[in-house]
């Protein structure tokens, strides 16, 4: 089955809107017509199986192009519109892409040549013609056919291309709709980009249930987010840790303002320290807070913690979502006992096909039908999983293993601290030493290195106290809002 056939609603009203926002709107009817017509044109011109790059911010052009490319039987490669020339050249060469979709306003910035470049006017021309619709509406394909390649961000090397099939998208969308209980009444405030799997999951799920999405590409202007909540009566908000840290510690407006229509929020894209969850729940007790965990390699989602279990399972990433089996295993692949630490592995129809043109990395990640996530965790007697760290993040101080998240959890509990990043630095004696980069707000301007170390000394073993502490007023995040952690020598 083509995932676009699964996502697009069958019965639609010609006037009912799917996309809401200040700049543009889009009805389900117009979306479906444009997707089918553009898909027909792409099939006619290029056939199937070609890799096509989509480089766009969240807008109607992006949504129509994204769905049409997959509907046509081709493979969409969504990229950050700020992708640098070197990475764009790498992706183009690896995938053999000769076709790109990009908004007219960004076209002149592209320094890498493509055979064909599609902009808004090209889609408009196709849709006015209407002659390319043909019989593509009823067209089907093998669900294990490659639908998209999502490139994961890399700080020291070129990114890896995660191959996602039509079956992967259908399975993950179905699971998320199930456990979030999404319906056509849901309206999602979208600040996450669609080149990021978490952002795409919002598009997929709300399209599937015939809900609505509000596009907001300006989370940095918090006032615009609050206005969207009120104007469009948003029922849902999805964010990565930095979004909630900023909402809770950078502005009093969110805490003090009531949003009566907001039913739930979801958080993924990294571990949000428990202190922020507790602050959110205290300020907004009527809004469900749902912790989730996932990877691009799993299409988007692997686990969730129901809001009603936050009281007794705070700090947990929950259990596997419907249709996904999770285990925590030791180095030999054996299931660990509660309290021990091992690696999270997963199995389900949402797990990727592999890494594009990287057999070695694929063999390391996919073993005996299981996805090895690279995330270390423990579990309790009831099987709830607690994330410890990424394997590569563990710091060895004088031979003792230290999890950065444990130290970060302590430091962010200091009033006025917005964020903390623990890094390893080279040390002649210990091998590795600990450095803390602390983001503080104006309310705690007097916080200094000695006071942080003194606070840590009451809650951490001596070898876990950071050796060096620096301060900044700005979080270091990427285009998806996820924290960027760079190791130092």
TrEMBL record:
Residues 21-356 form the AMP-dependent synthetase/ligase domain. It holds the Pfam family AMP-binding_C. Transmembrane segments: none annotated. Keywords: Ligase. GO terms for molecular function: CoA-ligase activity. Residues 406-482 form the AMP-binding enzyme C-terminal domain. This is Acyl-CoA synthetase (AMP-forming)/AMP-acid ligase II. It comes from Saccharicrinis carchari.
